[in-house]
């Protein structure tokens, strides 16, 4: 069910760059991975495990001249009969920087041995709640982050779900607002607001009626969404942490589809896409996060924290660069509050480069990156500067929740792809 | 076409409060309008001009015991045959704090005499581009801001459109990116990017190819949207400025529908609603801006600028207040990046009151206000504190653009209302 078809570039590029000339990077990634040359790789380079490539086939898959389409071996079956195809995106990088994973896991209560160990796989133990995972990781400026995420993100999600396993096992009772200190095993819920306040809280009596009577009901599904959102953040933090010990190059968009207990969750941080095809109708399951779609969020950050723009960029958007000779004239602009355009008198500050610049696939954040969510990129700086891009990027996915198993399995096809050229 | 039906409260409230007990204010508005008692009113209190109430009818309309439904006089016709009805919202305030306007104006180039004078009405001069305006201003904590906006917002929009009048008169040519210093009359567009850079800009030559070839095409409609967005900001700034000389109490949600050159623009800052009824189908023209719908925007501001929370509030959302005795336990939470919920260990900081608290119509920003966009409220503070609410409120509307004149006039009805109970 997964089909991954890469853009076939219409023209070959003569000289190959070893790194850093991915479409996301306008300039080469200055400062990215600096000082990491001597560190070992966190994971060796490879193609997705489920392709099961021999060293010869792995070498063959990197041939820019032939650019073979790599698919599953005849007879290989991924879960749910998922399909897969990829081709190196000639001209952008020496190696294919994108990764994918397709895993069946089991959610269990964390045991002392396994707790906080995301490296543990299931080792054939099929007890617990089954979890089906598909992931696509569209790498840029190196493949390190994409490889690491393809190896670990599903395990982080599984372990996060393990922490609420006792709640998943009681799907008909609403999750408690408050848990005991150890979190698990589940203890009695904290007393509801209408009960008398504890004597420890001197404020409690006087305005208990205002403050304590309300208690929101939180659904089990929104807890699963919270686990997925948190897992992306944990994955991103882990990349940052392990960069001190390993060479983990670049960054990646991350798209994960998670099937759990009859429901499909699709989490997207970046500009990959997941669609459902149902009765020949295409149902988008994701929104894309780009400098254009997230313009106002980024401008708002630049407005509130101008120091992040390093005195080189302006958070105001203009339809083109302003020339010095145009000072005092009036030019169209948009700030973080606007959807329409208005004229403003050009002042010296407006000559700075716009934080968001360019249109469509050429739109960039600080002239550097064309996508605004994903994992990694902790060292990514604006070319020839000390301005970090990372504060403007978000590692948190948007999670959508739509289909029940019956609908999905019997009448629909789920397609997940990075940079879709065509899907079938 | 405008129908305005207020919630009929199902039970009368015994004691009336003179001010400040609007549904938007949880506590009474501490600090609001402080020191303004001795200032004259900017505009006298009244009901919308088009109701043409006599002093006796005005007095009658304020009777809480009878709460008459006030409608247009028999034989009165608003533009487009618009309708109107209102009733005082018994128990919330002494006077009806909501206002409305329905105006036909004409957009002309600004002349020296009229420039920057938003108080000028058309005085029967019907030259220029016709503009039909409907506005609803749902006031709270006083009627001053709502009255002022109902008198002036349409004129600010008209004058803003006057500044681009020369562009509106040439609807088939794309608006120029850059105008001469005086802005008007229209001069030749700045040279396109492909021309050689001026010698004044030493940076220009080296990366001209990167920076200067792109120029966005901006539509005339997005200029009109920009004028409307800017006008709301100007209206809000004017209220703030004139508060130094006049008593202008409270704040208001603002919803404006503007018909110009065959297109309808609906601008909404608050929780009022505009709908189109077409073939008995209801088409929403607005989204509502409430603590729940704007939760993540507000939390993000509180996260980036914690000083605005005055050490009293936390930007993290919890499903209920936390008791001191629960320190160290785990509680569900959401931060500004999350849609789902997750558990966190409760620390001292989490005992602060949540920035966003409550559900549905009871949701409040800093326990004070139930709406997150609008005009006015510059002095509004958290009860018994020096924490201002205004930084969390936005005066900028969301502008939608949908229908052509033919569709709208022949087959549809536009209904604009504050706190809709029922519409017909």
TrEMBL record, chains A, B:
<protein>
    <recommendedName>
        <fullName>PPM-type phosphatase domain-containing protein</fullName>
    </recommendedName>
</protein>
<feature type="domain" description="PPM-type phosphatase">
    <location>
        <begin position="81"/>
        <end position="424"/>
    </location>
</feature>
<dbReference type="Pfam" id="PF00481">
    <property type="entry name" value="PP2C"/>
</dbReference>
<dbReference type="InterPro" id="IPR001932">
    <property type="entry name" value="PPM-type_phosphatase-like_dom"/>
</dbReference>
<feature type="region of interest" description="Disordered">
    <location>
        <begin position="10"/>
        <end position="44"/>
    </location>
</feature>
<dbReference type="InterPro" id="IPR015655">
    <property type="entry name" value="PP2C"/>
</dbReference>
<dbReference type="InterPro" id="IPR036457">
    <property type="entry name" value="PPM-type-like_dom_sf"/>
</dbReference>
């Amino acid at each position: 069910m997964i089909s991954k078809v890469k853009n076939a570039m219409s023209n070959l590029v003569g000289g190959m760059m070893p790194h850093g000339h991915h479409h996301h990077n306008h300039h080469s990634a200055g400062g990215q991975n600096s000082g990491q040359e001597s560190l070992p790789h966190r994971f060796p380079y490879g193609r997705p495990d489920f392709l099961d490539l021999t060293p010869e086939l792995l070498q063959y898959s990197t041939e820019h001249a032939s650019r073979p389409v790599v698919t599953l071996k005849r007879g290989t079956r991924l879960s749910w009969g998922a399909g897969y195809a990829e081709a190196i995106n000639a001209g952008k990088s020496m190696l294919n920087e994108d990764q994918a994973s397709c895993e069946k896991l089991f959610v269990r209560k964390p045991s002392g041995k396994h707790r906080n160990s995301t490296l543990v796989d299931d080792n054939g133990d099929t007890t617990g709640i089954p979890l089906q995972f598909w992931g696509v990781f569209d790498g840029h400026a190196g493949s390190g982050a994409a490889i690491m995420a393809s190896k670990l993100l599903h395990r982080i999600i599984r372990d996060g779900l393990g922490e609420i396993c006792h709640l998943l096992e009681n799907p008909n009772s609403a999750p408690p607002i408050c848990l005991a200190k150890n979190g698990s095993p589940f203890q009695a819920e904290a007393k509801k607001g209408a009960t008398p306040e504890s004597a420890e809280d001197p404020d409690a009596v006087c305005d208990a009626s205002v403050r304590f009577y309300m208690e929101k009901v939180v659904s089990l599904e929104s807890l699963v969404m919270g686990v997925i959102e948190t897992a992306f953040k944990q994955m991103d933090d882990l990349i940052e942490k392990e960069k001190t010990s390993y060479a983990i190059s670049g960054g990646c968009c991350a798209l994960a589809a998670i099937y759990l207990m009859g429901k499909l969750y699709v989490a997207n941080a970046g500009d990959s896409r997941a669609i459902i095809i149902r009765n020949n109708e295409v149902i988008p399951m994701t929104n894309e996060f780009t400098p254009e779609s997230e313009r106002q969020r980024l401008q708002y950050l630049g407005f509130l924290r101008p120091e992040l723009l390093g005195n080189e960029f302006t958070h105001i958007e203009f339809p083109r660069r302003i020339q010095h000779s145009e000072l005092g004239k009036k030019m169209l602009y948009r700030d973080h509050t606007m959807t329409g355009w208005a004229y403003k008198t050009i002042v010296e500050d407006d000559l700075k480069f716009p934080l968001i610049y360019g249109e469509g696939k050429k739109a960039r954040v600080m002239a550097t990156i064309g996508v605004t969510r994903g994992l990694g990129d902790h060292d990514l700086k604006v070319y020839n500067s000390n301005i970090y891009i990372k504060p403007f990027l978000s590692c948190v996915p948007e999670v959508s929740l739509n289909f029940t198993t019956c609908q999905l399995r019997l009448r629909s096809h789920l397609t997940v792809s990075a940079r879709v050229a065509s899907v079938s």
